[in-house]
Amino acid sequence: MPCLHLYQRLSLCLSTSLLLWLLQTPSQAADAAFTVAADKSTDAGLEVRVGYLSYRPATPPALSNVLPEPRDSGLRGAELGIADSNSSGRFLKHHYQLDQLSSDDPDTLLSQALAWQSSGIHLIVADLPASELARLSEALGGSALIFNAGSSDDALRTDQCLGNVLHTLPSRAMLTDALAQWLASRQWRNWLLIVGNQPEDQAYARGLHRAAKRFGGKIIDEKTWSFDTDLRRTAQKEMPLFTQGGDYDVVLLADERGDFGEYVLYNSWLPRPVAGTQGLTPVAWHRVIEQWGAAQLQSRFEAQSGRWMHARDYAAWAAVRSIAEAVTRVQQAEAPVLRTFLLSDDFSLAAFKGRKLSYRPWSGQLRQPIALVHPRALVSQSPQEGILHPVTDLDSLGFDAPESRCASAYATDKTDGAAQ
Amino acid sequence: MSLKHAARHRLASCLTLGLLSLGYQSGAQADVVYVSNEKDDTLSLIDLDSLEVINTFDVGQRPRGITLSGDGSKLYICASDSDTVQVMDLATHRIIASLPSGEDPEQFVLHPNDQLLYVANEDDALVTVVDVNSHEVVAQIDVGVEPEGMAVSPDGKWVINTSETTNMLHWIDTATNELVDNTLVDQRPRYVEFNQDGSLLWASSEIGGTVAVVDVSTRQIVHRLNFEIRGVHRDKIQPVGIKLSKDGRYGFVALGPANHIAVVDAKTYEVLDYLLVGRRVWHLAFNSDESRLLSTNGISGDVSVIDVDKLKVIKSIKVGRYPWGLAVKP
Predict the structure, then answer these.
(1) A93 touches chain B (CB under 8 A)
(2) Residue A406 domain-assigned?
(3) N or C: which end of chain A has fewer CB within 10 A?
(4) Pairs across A and B, CB distance < 8 A
(5) Which of A38, A87, A393 sits opposite B184 (nearest CB)?
């Protein structure tokens, strides 16, 4: 895979200007000079209905997580997306409406989606695990367009290939690549990796292994946290012993549920920073993001919801805003038409991340910078300066075109991409 | 109000104060420029003869847009986080009043009648119209999400507001203070500027990376400017502030994190040059005879001075943190 070598040659000693100069490639050609006249063409108006589905099982008791994610995470983002879109849409006589269902029963969610489909709702924002997303994709078929705002599963972007699904939540690989780029920029190359015993922890760890290869990290030791103790009272005794071994620069954690990760900070054998699922975390969104006009989005969200905006909220908001932006530009609301437009070079979304976002035509993944945060501040944002990519440095995060087998599912000349 | 003042105000927008006195002052006269420092809650005062900061004043929180009154005796200041427009007496540099601007005022424009201030309320999707004499809110107009850029046509008929998330130019008829039309532009429109005779409007789209030139009579886009700088990724070319020279020769476009100002032939729309200035170049203003162009550079915390004849950057002047807007007083 030749493009990987490019990343490995990333040398932060080289001057940024030289690297940026090297970065200039034919990408300019893709600039979408999309011309739309004013809104005078609209006459009767357009009603756009969006369905929001979220799977909310009973949360398993996390052993250390004292600050759980809100139960309505995601839904509130979709609601704000609808409100924003209506504020804009009224000038074009476009109206957006959200129908929603949260349930702990996947079958209930699926039958709701089918009921919506027969009542004419073909645009779905889904906060579902990967397996349920695949079921939904197959059941609804090519007349629907589904936005994945709930699963970061890498296989959905590489092998599973649900052609009627676009992903607004970043994949795990995008998160771990974002972190690895930053670690490379700090030249913290020796990593101690601690992995939890859940399948998603192992998936996150696989992302870190892949990122290590791509960006020059070295996992000098890997440990599995398989204890089932609640660390709230014993971390000071247990963690230093557990983190002995080797001279690591940083401790990386793969603990998505938060069973032990919070208790590694300040308790490692060596005085080292902690990153990954806790400590310095790569995220799609966080309250500390305020640049690029984000302060406005944050304050709108907080006024609406009375709480901070989380990554799932952002993914759901971006999904609804993508729909509305496409409807505004094509003046139609048919799912296959929107899908074609969203996957084209003509689409771009301003989404408070400092640059335009677009969908990867080989996986339906929304390209986006990834913030690196600690609980009280933004530390950095990846892609890091100086990262090379022949098309856009945003594609240095996650799976690039040659690494995905989904391109044919996302070809825009056919709309029935589900269930290949 | 005298005719002279009315004429002076034809081009007044939040940031265009350099244009105000053109034709009334000789170039030899020493101009001064007020610069709002967004993250210092101050204004810097620069002498344009010596090109040095000669004073700094404390103002309300997060000052952004600033504009002079018709007679040049007062400065209006959008104090965004204080939710007010402050009025500074320029003889004493004291704040003498606070206008009810609506929440989070960012940019505003003073109508040529020197009486009505049109203020974009970024958090509320409103444009608030304030009478600067009676200090009363005359009207509030619903616009798109995150209203930002404001401009008034030279004849005073139109006030234009841009909404950053709705991606439109909103046309407000000043006779009725009602929104009568919208023009869809590229992502995140930031700033609008009328040309000298009011026939064309230039509108920058920060995330779209373009400037739309709009025919005022049809309210349709007639041209779209694109920018390309060797060594800068196209996503980082983010147009914000615009200034059009009064002689119709040049358009200058501040390109934000690209750290350059584009020089555009205002007749052919050809981009003639890119001038390297400070980091995150934001807004622009001319001095009174338009021999100098000034830019605020937010991240580097300075103001660049450009020789308009030679199209060369001649100096950077350190000001406060995150300089944002400019107002030139002859």
Answers:
(1) no
(2) yes
(3) N
(4) 94
(5) A38
Last residue of a domain, one of A301, A318, A352: A352
Domain range for A203 is: 1-23+172-283+371-411
B170 vs A contacts (CB less than 8 Å):
91
Beta carbons within 10 angstroms of residue A315's beta carbon: 29
* Residues A187, A278 share a domain: yes
CA distance B299 to chain A (A): 12
Q: What part of B 251-290 touches A (C-beta under 8 Å)?
A: 257
Asked if A239 and A334 sit in the same domain, the reply is no
Instruction: Give the Cα separation of A350 and B164 in Å (integer).
Output: 9
**Quick one: A200 and A348 in the same domain?**
no
Cross-chain residue pair B182–A299, CB shorter than 8 Å = no
Same domain, A375 and A238: yes
Q: If you ran DSSP here, which 8-state letter would residue A3 be given?
A: H
Residue in A38, A84, A349 nearest the CB of B145: A84
Q: How far is CA B132 from CA A369, B79, B99, B111, B330, in A?
A: 43, 16, 7, 11, 22
The answer to whether residues A50 and A130 belong to one domain is yes
CA separation for the pair A364, A367 (Å, rounded): 9
Q: What distance in Å separates residue A244's CA from the closest CA in chain B? A: 43
The verdict on B318 touching A (C-beta cutoff 8 Å) is no
The vertex-B53 CA angle with B47 and B58, nearest 5°, equals: 115
Residues A159 and A95 occupy one common structural domain: yes
**Contact at CB, A33 and B226, closer than 8 angstroms:** yes
Residue B187 CA to residue B172 CA, distance in Å, equals 21
User: What is the nearest CA distance from A235 to chain B, expressed in angstroms?
Assistant: 41
Q: What are the pLDDT tens digits along chain A (420 aa)?
A: 334 444 444 433 333 333 333 333 333 333 333 333 333 344 578 999 999 999 998 877 666 666 778 999 999 999 999 999 998 899 999 999 999 999 999 999 999 999 999 999 999 999 999 999 999 999 999 999 999 999 999 999 999 999 999 999 999 999 999 999 999 999 999 999 999 999 999 999 999 999 999 999 999 999 999 877 777 777 888 899 999 989 999 999 999 988 889 999 999 999 999 999 999 999 999 999 998 889 999 999 999 999 999 999 999 999 999 999 999 999 999 999 999 999 999 999 999 998 999 999 999 999 999 999 999 999 999 999 988 888 899 999 999 999 999 999 999 864 444 433
Asked if A87 is an interface residue toward chain B (Cβ–Cβ < 8 A), one would say yes
| Nearest CB neighbour to B144, from listed A91, A355, A392 | A91
ipTM of the complex: 0.77
Domain extent at residue B268: 3-329
- B170 in contact with A at a CB cutoff of 8 Å? yes
| A115 and A189 housed in the same domain | no
Cα-based torsion angle of the residue sequence B129, B135, B136, B140 in order, rounded to the nearest 10 degrees: 20
- Helix (H) and strand (E) counts for chain B? 1, 28
| Overall residue count recorded for chain A in this entry | 420
Q: Are B284 and B243 in contact (CB under 8 A)?
A: yes
Beta-carbon contacts of A233 under 8 Å, excluding residues fewer than 6 positions away, are none
Please identify, among A352, A381, A403, the residue that sits at the C-terminal boundary of a domain.
A352
A132 in the same domain as A50? yes
Q: Quote the number of domains for chain A.
A: 2
With respect to residue A272, please indicate whether it lies within any of the assigned structural domains. yes
CB A31 to CB B209 under 8 A?
yes
CATH classification at residue B202: 2.130.10.10
CATH label of the domain that carries residue A81: 3.40.50.2300
Residues in chain A with CB shorter than 8 Å from the CB of B228 are: 28
Best of B233, B238, B280 to substitute, by most chain A Cβ atoms within 10 angstroms, is B233
In a domain, A153, yes or no: yes
What are the structure tokens assigned to A14, written together? Answer: 């080289």
